Amino acid sequence: MEARKLKILDLLKEDARRSPELIATMLGESEEQVRATIKELEEENVIVKYATVLNWSKFVSETVTALIEVQITPERGHGFDAIAERIYLYPEVKSVYLMSGAYDLLVEIEGSSLQDVASFVSNKLASLDRVLSTKTHFILKKYKQDGIIFENKEDDNRLPITP
Q1: Are 111 and 60 within one domain?
Q2: Of 147, 143, 103, 145, whose CA–CA distance to 125 is shortest?
Q3: Which of 58, 70, 145, 161 lies in the 20 to 30 Å Cα band around 108?
Q4: CA 46, 47, 53 angle in degrees (round to 5)?
Q5: Is the separation of the CB atoms in 144 and 150 below 8 Å?
Q6: Can you tell me the distance from the alpha carbon of 61 to that of 79, in angstroms, rounded to the nearest whole number?
Q7: Is Ligase included in the keywords of this UniProt record (predicted)?
Q8: Are 64 and 119 part of one and the same domain?
Q9: Does residue 116 or residue 157 have the better pLDDT?
Q10: Looking at residue 134, what is its pLDDT?
């Protein structure tokens, strides 16, 4: 992919609200060139979605997020893809990743309670053919997501004390 496209993608990834006019100014290009490149990247499915990163801890939220390690037996002719597709079609599932190491898939889900997540794991996920085992980890606090730090440390304005 050419360097110009990568620069545009980096600028949009950093802040999706940047306008083509601003990006053109930042890159020293015409607005029409930037608009055409963004449209091309959208049509090629390189840019899939523009999203907002939220710090839900600043807003009352009853959502519980969990990461689930899943060991599976790959399906002949389809490998891990077929079971991954069955899993990512559940509405509770936010992300699914094929991993190297001790487990095969990492599944991120959201539920309204711990019991909601436990029910999903036991009734929907663990009961799928080819799922050998699961290990669930609940997210207690997010410090950083998608490169964004949620908690800014306050400056220590106290006067130093020296002996």
Answers
A1: yes
A2: 103
A3: 58
A4: 135
A5: yes
A6: 37
A7: no
A8: yes
A9: 116
A10: 97
Element (H, E) at 23: helix 20-27
Task: Judge whether 67 and 106 are in contact, CB under 8 Å.
Answer: yes
Specify the residue for token string 């496209």: 5
Cα–Cα nearest to 26, from 40, 7, 5, 13? 7
Are 91 and 122 in the same domain?
A: yes
- Of 145 and 53, the one with more pLDDT: 145
pLDDT band at 154 (very low <50, low <70, confident <90, very high): low
Domain assignment of residue 149, yes or no: no
Name which of 67, 66, 65, 68 is nearest 133 in CA terms.
68
- For the stretch 29-66, pLDDT in tens is 999 999 999 999 999 999 988 887 776 666 766 789 99
CATH number at residue 27: 1.10.10
Is 115 within the bounds of a domain?
A: yes
CATH, residue 127: 3.30.70.920
* pLDDT at 156 exceeding the cut of 70: no
Residues ≥6 apart with Cβ < 8 Å to 121: 66, 68, 134, 136
Structure tokens, 67: 């990461």
CA distance linking residue 137 with residue 66, whole number of Å? 5
**What is the helix (H) or strand (E) element at residue 9, kind and residue range?**
helix 3-14
Please state, in angstroms and rounded to a whole number, the distance separating the CA atoms of residues 130 and 145.
31
